[in-house]
TrEMBL record:
Keywords per UniProt: Cell membrane, Membrane, Protein transport, Translocation, Transmembrane, Transmembrane helix, Transport
Description of how the protein assembles with itself and partners: Forms a complex with TatA.
Main location: membrane
GO biological process terms, semicolon-separated: intracellular protein transmembrane transport; protein transport by the Tat complex
Protein topology in the membrane: Multi-pass membrane protein
Subcellular location, record wording: Cell membrane; Membrane
Gene Ontology molecular-function annotations: proton motive force dependent protein transmembrane transporter activity
Taxonomic classification: Bacteria, Bacillati, Bacillota, Bacilli, Bacillales
The protein, known as: Sec-independent protein translocase protein TatC
GO cellular component, one term: TAT protein transport complex
Functional note: Part of the twin-arginine translocation (Tat) system that transports large folded proteins containing a characteristic twin-arginine motif in their signal peptide across membranes.
InterPro entries, A to Z: TatC
Residues passing through the membrane, by range: 14-36, 56-82, 103-129, 149-171, 183-200, 206-225
Matches recorded under Pfam families: TatC
């Protein structure tokens, strides 16, 4: 295809992604009050708002995050379909696994942040102020806190897929990841400390899963790297 056809194809893919996001957003928004009640069911207090616009902003924020989660696999599929004509049959089979895996990892990151990190951090902060402060949360501040404790993990959990992709195009190698492991661990510790409260237990509960993800990423990188070398050797033989 020439450049005009490529741009037209890209426009179609973007329209599909945007349409799915809008439909998912509307569908979530229809049940937003039930979703809100479920998210706040474990709180021992009713959240306050400081203005009428806060209500719609909170509802929109919740709907947007859930709509992104629904749209992500569709977005990955559309990117794959756009790139597919330029891929070999082996690359098509290899990259097809990215679509369901990206969705599962995104949801896994959200679940880890919501069910593991969020309760630990919230209980720690409440215990810190118990007997000293009167606790009252505004809905806006509370959901900013929830998003901060969940959304970053959704993207951090995509690490294995990112590593596999970068390995497949030759930017990363498992040897390089082994060599730079200490720097990666240092980065993981820094990110974990920034995301979790300042106590040892919370830091460990965040650091360990991220280190495991990094080690899994190295193992997956080895598999992709071997396949890439094999493919390059076959291509060289065909040229000869």
């Amino acid at each position: 295809m020439d450049i005009v056809d490529h741009l037209d194809e890209l426009r179609k893919r973007i329209i599909i992604i945007a349409s799915v996001f809008i439909i998912a957003f509307i569908a979530v928004f229809i049940y937003i009050q039930d979703i809100y009640a479920w998210i706040t069911k474990d709180l021992d207090m009713q959240l306050a708002v400081l203005g009428p616009l806060d209500i719609i902003v909170i509802y929109f924020s919740i709907a947007a995050v859930l709509a992104i989660a629904v749209t992500l696999p569709v977005a990955v599929l559309q990117i794959w379909l756009f790139s597919k004509p330029g891929l070999t049959k082996a690359e098509v089979r290899a990259t097809a696994v990215y679509i369901p895996a990206s969705f599962l990892l995104f949801i896994g990151g959200l679940a880890f942040g919501y069910f593991v990190v969020l309760p630990i951090v919230l209980n720690f902060l409440l215990a810190l102020g118990e007997g000293t402060f009167q606790t009252m949360f505004t809905a806006d501040r509370y959901f900013q806190f929830v998003l901060r404790m969940t959304v970053p993990f959704s993207f951090l959990f995509e690490m294995p897929l990112v590593v596999m992709f970068l390995t497949s195009i030759g930017i990363l190698t498992p040897m390089g990841m082994h060599k730079n492991r200490k720097y990666a661990y240092f980065g993981i510790v820094v990110v974990s400390v920034l995301l979790s409260p300042p106590d040892f237990l919370s830091d460990v509960l965040v650091i360990i899963p991220l280190i495991l993800l990094y080690e899994i990423s190295i193992s997956l990188s080895k598999i992709v790297y071997k396949r890439r070398l094999k493919r390059l050797q076959q291509e060289e033989k065909e040229i000869e």
